[in-house]
Automatic annotation (TrEMBL):
<keyword id="KW-0479">Metal-binding</keyword>
<dbReference type="InterPro" id="IPR002401">
    <property type="entry name" value="Cyt_P450_E_grp-I"/>
</dbReference>
<dbReference type="InterPro" id="IPR050121">
    <property type="entry name" value="Cytochrome_P450_monoxygenase"/>
</dbReference>
<dbReference type="Pfam" id="PF00067">
    <property type="entry name" value="p450"/>
</dbReference>
<dbReference type="GO" id="GO:0005506">
    <property type="term" value="F:iron ion binding"/>
</dbReference>
<dbReference type="InterPro" id="IPR036396">
    <property type="entry name" value="Cyt_P450_sf"/>
</dbReference>
<keyword id="KW-0349">Heme</keyword>
<keyword id="KW-0408">Iron</keyword>
<dbReference type="GO" id="GO:0016705">
    <property type="term" value="F:oxidoreductase activity, acting on paired donors, with incorporation or reduction of molecular oxygen"/>
</dbReference>
<dbReference type="GO" id="GO:0004497">
    <property type="term" value="F:monooxygenase activity"/>
</dbReference>
<feature type="binding site" description="axial binding residue">
    <location>
        <position position="62"/>
    </location>
    <ligand>
        <name>heme</name>
    </ligand>
</feature>
<comment type="similarity">
    <text>Belongs to the cytochrome P450 family.</text>
</comment>
<dbReference type="InterPro" id="IPR001128">
    <property type="entry name" value="Cyt_P450"/>
</dbReference>
<protein>
    <submittedName>
        <fullName>Cytochrome P450</fullName>
    </submittedName>
</protein>
<dbReference type="GO" id="GO:0020037">
    <property type="term" value="F:heme binding"/>
</dbReference>
């Protein structure tokens, strides 16, 4: 593998955190909470099964992946259709020290959308 010989039965750990924080794939603002990067066609074209692994991969990958995708899409579509979200003025994101690149808290104004 890339010139390295990995003997049979060697335990291998895939550094998912490092892969999910590779600026060559995700851009220079990789440490920022920026969901809009998913709309960037250049970034999207680089994403593959080998560099985006939220559900793991291989024979022990997540059994609930399809259910989780369905749940996320159905819940998000109901929320987005019925509510409007605005950041409270002056709010700035504070990234968590380690783990998911999500803010530790968000000050949001949520209002119901009337049809
Ligand atoms: C956003 C939601 C979820 C995420 C990010 C997630 C992520 C993961 C990850 C990273 C693994 C380890 C895979 C590996 O070792 O390669 C895993 C395993 C597993 N997940 Fe999920 N999961 C989610 C939701 C669910 C749901 C909804 C279910 C069941 C209804 C589920 C059932 C399982 C099971 C049974 C395993 C163990 C599979 C095995 O060892 O063969 N997960 N999940």
């Amino acid at each position: 593998m890339n010139g390295y010989v990995i003997p049979k039965k060697t335990p291998i750990i895939i550094p998912i955190y490092a892969i999910h924080h590779d600026p060559l794939i995700w851009g220079d603002d990789v440490e920022c909470f920026n969901p809009s990067r998913w709309l960037n066609p250049e970034i999207k074209s680089k994403i593959s099964n080998s560099n985006f692994l939220p559900f793991g991969d291989g024979q022990a990958n997540c059994l609930g992946m399809k259910l989780a995708h369905l749940e996320l899409k159905s819940i998000l579509s109901v929320i987005i259709r019925n509510f409007e979200f605005k950041l409270v003025e002056g709010f700035t994101f504070q990234k968590q020290p380690f783990g998911l690149t999500k803010p530790s808290a968000i000050d949001l104004c949520v209002s119901k959308v009337d049809y």
